[in-house]
Specification:
Number of strands: 2
Low-confidence stretches: 242-248
Helix content: over 70%
Order of helices and strands: HHHHHHEEHHH
Structural class: mainly alpha
Radius of gyration: 22 Å
Largest sheet: 2 strands, antiparallel
Distance between the termini: 31 Å
């Protein structure tokens, strides 16, 4: 009986496992509120470059919320790297720092336009390629350059990590892929339908999807923190004779 009870999860571990869920609910509610207010204002007021409640407004409330989530993810991942002594989380933090710098400083828009004007045009590219503008191609090039080093580092460190860390890394990589899907793929679809009736819908899906993906990532990393702290606080387990040792989660 004592052996069975020893393997049951403690009350603290159960609460930690449920802990991120209220945070997820709160973040998603904020995401949906921002998207809903933006849609209502689009219908009632119309498009505006200065309306802070529209998702696509530079420097609007939704963008600042996204900046806060990106900064929080970078800080959480850096502290996770310190707690777990795993450099892979530093590489992931660099990915979100690059995203924060790009979004807040408009790097891919500004330098993408510069590349389109100074380089691509001189090479004789047509004005549109597969329905995309030259500026869009320049923006994708800038994003690729920004992300190349941290993504390559994350891939290399993932391959060198233990099984538990690789499992945690795959989960975060999936969430980053969802974020990039909305920020890159849906963004380019938005460009294609920009002047049609579907432009506002796709634009809201793009920006709202990015916010939800960031919220999921924040909750996921908070969960990794909780698991890592519990493992550090727990006494070392004594494996049964002949049983393989379990690898750490993060």
């Amino acid at each position: 009986m004592a052996t069975v009870n020893a393997h049951r999860p403690t009350l603290r571990s159960r609460l930690v496992a449920l802990g991120p869920m209220p945070l997820l609910a709160a973040l998603v509610v904020v995401d949906l509120l921002l998207a809903g207010i933006s849609l209502v204002r689009l219908v009632l007021v119309g498009e505006s470059l200065t309306d802070p409640w529209l998702l696509e407004t530079d420097g609007g409330w939704s963008e600042w919320f996204g900046y806060a989530q990106q900064a929080a993810l970078a800080a959480l991942l850096l502290t996770l790297a310190y707690v777990c002594r795993r450099a892979i989380w530093v590489a992931y933090a660099a990915i979100f720092l690059c995203a924060l710098a790009d979004d807040s400083l408009r790097l891919h828009e500004n330098y993408g336009s510069w590349i389109a004007d100074r380089l691509i045009v001189r090479l004789g590219f047509p004005e549109h390629v597969a329905g995309l503008r030259l500026n869009d191609l320049g923006e994708m090039f800038v994003w690729g350059v920004l992300a190349l080093a941290p993504v390559a580092a994350a891939v290399l460190l993932h391959r060198r990590s233990d099984a538990g860390t690789r499992r945690a890394s795959r989960g975060l990589a999936v969430l980053i892929a969802v974020y990039l899907f909305f920020g890159a793929v849906v963004d380019q679809v938005h460009v294609l339908v920009l002047d049609s009736w579907a432009g506002d819908i796709v634009g809201t899906l793009e920006d709202g999807g990015e916010l939800v993906a960031l919220s999921l990532a924040v909750v996921y990393v908070v969960g990794l923190h909780s698991t890592a702290r519990l493992r550090r606080a727990a006494p070392p387990a004594v494996p049964l004779a002949g049983a393989p040792e379990a690898s750490p989660v993060a």
